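ok, trying the design again with the full structure, not the truncated one.
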């Protein structure tokens, strides 16, 4: 029979349509992606085409000067930015409708020179460079007192919204805190007020005790298929050490963050045949630490199904994948995850 499940952290409901349920292997794409060359002369992110992007704001390079070849990770403003720091920050309230000029920042992290790499296929040491670049830019943008929130996300594949194959992720800084972020933090605060304990720390303890939805674990983190997953193969990375902000979660080392990201997307790559996905870092607003009750984490949302009218109209997702069965299927691929890409 079908089952309604509520996410313990967000209070979001999903429907597990078990009568229509498919086994995990039935969600795996049967068609392989078209071969991608290591270099594409028309790609603005490939080495030698640095002039096709705005000037870089950060780079990891072995040689060469700024905006030239020789880099391994490069960060540039988005040429087609959703928000710009050059736009005046003007708040307009002519009536009940509030608008703000498109002030903010929109950057692209070009994750590797090779056109055909993905986060799952690049060496783990290189993923650490990507994490370091992310932390550097989030820290730098966070110093701007006009920014309220900085979002880091990665769109992999056309179904996830990307238009360029070259490996990259994005950062957007906004002058407001998005309502979805506010709601998630507020639910965490309510749980803390009732239990005097972080909801995500509670999830870690209960998931580890039950074990059915844990797919990866290490001393620093666990990876689970969430109890109320919205998508088949949905995964969540939760650091074991309580920290409300992503920027607070690396005070000892960035290597474990790189390891967690690499192992998680590589697990999807192996088990689900390199599916399209969105990867999102959930962290606190810049000047609202929520230190006691919020807990930063990462969501990986494969795009193996398409939200339709019910999902868009209600915010309640129907899924035909049972998280416990998905976790069991994924665990079979864990031994291959740590092999060299």
């Amino acid at each position: 029979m079908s089952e309604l499940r509520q996410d313990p952290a967000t209070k979001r409901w999903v429907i597990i349509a078990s009568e229509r349920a498919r086994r995990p292997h039935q969600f795996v794409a049967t068609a392989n992606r078209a071969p991608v060359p290591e270099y594409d002369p028309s790609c603005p992110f490939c080495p030698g085409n640095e002039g096709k992007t705005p000037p870089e704001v950060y780079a990891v390079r072995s040689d060469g000067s700024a905006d030239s070849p020789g880099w391994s990770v490069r960060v540039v403003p988005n040429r087609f930015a959703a928000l710009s720091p050059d736009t005046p920050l003007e708040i307009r309230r002519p009536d009940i409708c509030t608008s703000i000029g498109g002030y903010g920042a929109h950057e692209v992290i070009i994750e590797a020179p090779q056109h055909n790499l993905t986060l799952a296929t690049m060496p783990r040491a290189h993923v650490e460079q990507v994490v370091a670049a992310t932390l550097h830019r989030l820290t730098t943008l966070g110093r701007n007192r006009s920014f309220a929130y900085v979002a880091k996300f990665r769109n992999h594949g056309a179904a996830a919204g990307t238009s360029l194959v070259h490996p990259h992720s994005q950062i957007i800084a906004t002058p407001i805190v998005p309502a979805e972020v506010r709601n998630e933090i507020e639910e965490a605060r309510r749980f803390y007020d009732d239990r005097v304990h972080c909801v995500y720390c509670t999830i870690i303890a209960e998931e580890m005790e039950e074990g059915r939805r844990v797919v990866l674990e290490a001393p620093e983190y666990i990876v689970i298929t969430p109890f109320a997953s919205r998508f088949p193969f949905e995964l969540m990375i939760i650091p074991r050490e309580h920290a409300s902000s992503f920027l607070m979660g690396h005070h000892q080392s960035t290597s474990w963050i790189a390891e967690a990201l690499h192992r998680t997307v590589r697990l999807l790559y192996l088990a689900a045949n390199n599916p399209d996905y969105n990867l999102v870092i959930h962290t606190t607003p810049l000047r609202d630490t929520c230190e006691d009750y919020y807990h930063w984490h990462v969501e990986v949302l494969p795009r193996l199904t398409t939200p339709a009218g019910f999902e868009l109209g209600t915010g309640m997702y129907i899924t035909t994948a049972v998280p416990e069965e998905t976790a069991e299927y994924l665990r079979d691929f864990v031994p291959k995850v740590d092999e060299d890409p």
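Keeping the full-length input from now on. The CA atoms of residues 3 and 120 lie 33 Å apart.
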